Amino acid sequence: MSDEFRVKLLVSLAQIRIISDCQATEGSDVNKNDLVKKVAKHCCGKPEARKVLEATFDHITHALSQGEKVVLSGFGSFHVYERKEKRAAHPRRPSEIIIIPAMKCVRFIPGKVVKGNLKS
User: Fold this and answer.
1) pTM higher than the cut 0.90
2) Per-residue burial over 45-55, b = 16 or more CB atoms within 10 Å of its CB, e = otherwise
3) Which neighbouring-strand residues pair with 110?
């Protein structure tokens, strides 16, 4: 990875706070295109912003698939945990018990910046 790409990646990660600035109305979602537009306004053009975001998501996904914890200072952290096997009622036939197998899941723990934005 080149130094220039690393700098762009770090700038983009620092600008993740712009998620809260996206003009999403209540009940709507912020998608990847919204993020690309916001990152492009702050650091580079749309094609470069898309590459940076895709590389960021790829690196996060790869690290999580390897069982690593991903920490983005101020924003939050992602980590993989093992969900235990459990028994539950069948959604359509509540009298029938089904077994939900154990699986790996991703948990996100918000950082100070995100928590602060949620409180206000």
Assistant:
1) no
2) eeebbbbbbee
3) 76
